[in-house]
């Protein structure tokens, strides 16, 4: 074996496929909130609820897609099916924007498109990254750099998407949104086409065997699957528990006179119920040792704090898009930058700052000063809080409709990117490190579940973005202006940072065990 040779060409095929998928997702996301408010005339609270439900379900369906791929389809078929389904979803959004003046038809097409995007992502997302490692032998030391190269595909797609789709769709004219959605559709079709054309040639292991084929299920395995009543009973217990909690969370206790499920948020209830039941089902498995349960408990605690991070961070596609569009002076000379362009700032900053932060950790590590993993995550939450504090003072005493300098939103994204680099990679590393091998996929699913819950929560919080003549209150906290709104995230993420920092020592001891 020669670990110094070049990476297999299959890695670059996966890079390009993932790049176009991220182009499609972030291109649509850059326009989605603006489309609902400016073209379909949704109020901001309703648009935020739809956005939160969509992004929440996007991270929920990979549980189903991963299961189907592992048991029946394999990675290859799942990726192509998911990509084509998402392309069709983007095309329905294009049609929705074509008929935006026919409100009912446009809404129907939009929700059908969102459903296909959610379904397609479930098949695509959990399968493409798992194929990267299979291109190498188990002891190949090029794996780390391979995943780094692959992750660059995510950032390249995330950077290009708002620039291209924003230029075409975010023109200030509602009739132009369709071109941004069409660009996202074409990007997804390009990714699917490239993968389909070259997968048989390049997606192979070091011995030349195809990677990601449908699993071969032997007669013995079929019999074992049919003869596992304990497994079946736990599956039914999970389904029953999820249904029961979904119903419980959907009860509107403040409007019982209108009906027990009046104005129920069924999607949010399902996401939150699944995020509770799945972790409970895993940690109560009788095959786990006490030490394994402790390690899984650490994963759960970290996943809980991650919810607060992403709920505030993901305002980038929701309330911060409103702020960029309505109250940010985007003029550079005589040119006015589209509001969607701000969503390219984060991936550009990630590529720029990731090597810097890695060098900082290395410098501190050589001197025995590098923070533990839980403390790094607490630092990430603290930086998130500081980003919102920065922009809160930028808008203090600013009247509605008055535009402020781009420096405030740019500064927020810069601080948030540093926070993301402290938290996100560390969390993924801990999940891999602490998960028992037989539960690694399920626990990665739990990690995605926390992101799903966070995105739904983000949509709900975005609904508190101040609107003229609308009184809004969150748990007794009055949101009357932008300063109040941004301070809500300062308090939330700041409190989470303090609590995690206080728990960090205990968590690190549990990790070291």
From TrEMBL:
Listed PANTHER family: PROTON-DEPENDENT OLIGOPEPTIDE FAMILY TRANSPORT PROTEIN, RESISTANCE PROTEIN MDTM, PUTATIVE-RELATED-RELATED
Keyword Transferase among record annotations: no
Record-linked SUPFAM superfamilies: MFS general substrate transporter
GO molecular function: peptide transmembrane transporter activity
Superkingdom classification of source: Bacteria
Protein name: Amino acid/peptide transporter
GO BP field: peptide transport
Record localization: Cell membrane
